[in-house]
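Readers outside the structure-tokenisation community will struggle with the description of the input data as it stands. What matters is that the chain and its backbone geometry are given together, residue for residue. For illustration, here is how one protein appears when written out as sequence plus structure tokens:

…
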Amino acid sequence: MRVWLTALGCALAGPVLALQLELPSNARQTASRDSVLDRVSVATAPFADGQVAADSIDGPVKRRSYRIPSPGLTPLQLLAPLRAQLVDAGYDTLLDCAAEACGGFDFRFAIDVLPAPNMYVNVRAYHFLSARHPDTGDAVWLLASTAPDAGYLQVVQVGAQEAAVPSTPSPTAVVPTAPTADMGQNLLASGSIILHSLDFATGTTDLSEGPAPELEQIARLMENRPNLRIAIVGHTDTVGGLQANIAVSRARASAVRDRLIERYDISADRIEAGGMGYLSPVDTNLTAEGREANRRVEAVVLGEDG
């Protein structure tokens, strides 16, 4: 099932970053974000004590994400051939970990991932690798994850050498940046955010008792801004009837509202809850990953009294 190119068009190359990684022949690029000069954080340890240890490297940066039809493959199977190429090119491994060992959703939301649907990350099924060349200082980090019918791969390359900034930069494809770790500030800035770290038992509206860093940050925001009001809104895919999906989405939103009230002591009159069912999708319902993206809970700013 693995067919690898020998430096064709899918290879990652550029005038400054010399490393070429050979990707599967069926890899389709979904997004890119390049910088002539930028500062990149390259994770060097799993999530611990509320943060991810990282090296900061300045230089030209290439960011790419790919979708790879690969039913049945694991994230490590997608990433291992690229890891072998890095070793062959003389790179030293900084961090090599799977989802739970990396730190689960805490790690995933602490690194700069290109936004969905271009880069899909299953927080229970991903593999991360970072590496750096001992001579040039160039660094690479890779993130592989899988959905039922496809794999997703993000590749970030940064050259440690200083780059000359041209007076007229070459145009590059631009996609929105990934959300930062501070979801409270994201909520204020954008007016709404998707709460990625929530975990509902399959087929139920029961919210897991596990940690939800985004709710902690929203609660902290509401403590700091005592007049802020928000709504929690649930969404589903199109499996099942409309009324049933509206009921499920409303119940899940209510569960999140109850968690904010009961665990974080936020006043009930400052939080509303509702459900849209499948009436407000963010992606196609024709694919498994699209339906996964549509099954979500959002926080929405309503206003600020006083």
Notes: The radius of gyration is 21 Å. Strands lie at 28-48, 51-68, 92-98, 126-132, 139-147, 150-158, 192-194, 228-235, 271-275, 296-304. The helical segments are 75-88, 99-102, 104-108, 183-190, 213-224, 242-264, 288-294.
